[in-house]
Hints:
Layout: E1 2-4, H1 6-13, H2 20-29, E2 33-36, H3 37-51, H4 53-65, E3 69-72, H5 76-86, H6 92-104, E4 107-109, H7 113-123
Helix pairs in contact: 1-2, 1-3, 3-4, 5-6, 6-7
Amino acid sequence: MKVADTSFLVSLFIPMDKHHKEAVKIFESEDKFFVPVDIIKETLTVITYKLGYAKMREVWEFISNSEVFEIVSEDFNKLVNFYLSLSKKIAFFDACVIYFSLIEGLEPASFDKQLLSVWKAIRS
């Protein structure tokens, strides 16, 4: 089980993405992915801009109907407090993935080097 980041999901759903093959391997090797609700928002936005509204709807239907993806949310104040505690230049969306990875004891599924760097630094 892993926590899905936008970079992973975009790579998974866009065949021409440079990390697509790697994303497919990760997807096929896991039984379940937690997906923070904020990551859904960001992923659907990116897919819309890159591939259009119809593809975004297709991706949403796949994610929302799949037993592999579990959409998770947390109290917004907890997320903001965690984000503020990082004291690092990082996107709020990345902090959401790190937060859920830490509280669930899971690794993030991500190709974002900054996210992974912060996650590793916090864990050590």
